[in-house]
Write a structure and sequence with these properties.
Length: about 200
């Protein structure tokens, strides 16, 4: 598999989601969002997992939008805040209520420990790919050439330092959230040991 084998969907919703992510996220968080889609799509191709590319792309671009100041919530975990943003965005994109809900679910579930592929392929792929990018889990499942090219095109910049600070802040303010559990489970050490930063 090569980088050029990865399908990048080009729809108005996808272009709009990228525009929103570019406008509100830092360069490090934006590149992370793009890589999340690319890792997911590459993994799906290598495992013959069928998925909705537009749904996964939009969800990837918006999955961490709840971390930015403009959309940070004082009352719900950041992935739920991101799910609300996605629902509103997808309504504006003309998606059906059911499809809006799917985007919200995929974003919320990216923080789960595991999302069964047979129940939610897009949620499974985003949960897997964000874990790859943040903590380096299962990065060996992406072919070496694809991994190198993705990192060249969308460099990691300051994602380790920035995400570690974001998740620590979320965990401190929302200790019962997944972020709180991840902080207590030592995510900072896993971020620091990510082989993608070696």
């Amino acid at each position: 598999m090569r980088f050029d084998d990865i399908v990048l969907p080009d729809t108005p919703a996808c272009r709009g989601a990228l525009e929103v992510a570019t406008r509100y996220q830092s360069p490090s968080l934006l590149n992370h969002s793009v890589r999340a889609y690319l890792w997911a799509a590459a993994y799906a191709r290598s495992r013959a997992i069928d998925f909705d590319a537009e749904l996964l792309y939009v969800s990837s671009m918006l999955h961490d939008i709840g971390l930015v100041a403009e959309f940070d919530s004082q009352t719900v975990p950041y992935e739920e805040a991101g799910g609300h943003v996605a629902w509103a965005f997808c309504a504006g994109a003309g998606w059906s209520p059911e499809r809006r809900l799917r985007a919200s679910e995929v974003i919320i579930r990216h923080m789960w420990e595991e999302v069964p592929v047979e129940e939610d392929p897009e949620g499974h792929l985003l949960e897997l790919s964000t874990g790859m990018d943040i903590s380096g889990r299962r990065t060996e499942d992406i072919p070496d050439g694809v991994r190198r090219e993705v990192l060249e095109r969308y460099p990691r910049l300051e994602i380790a330092k920035e995400f570690a600070a974001c998740i620590a802040d979320q965990g401190a303010r929302k200790p019962s959230s997944y972020a709180g559990r991840f902080v207590r489970g030592g995510i900072a050490d896993r971020i620091a040991a990510n082989p993608l930063d070696a």
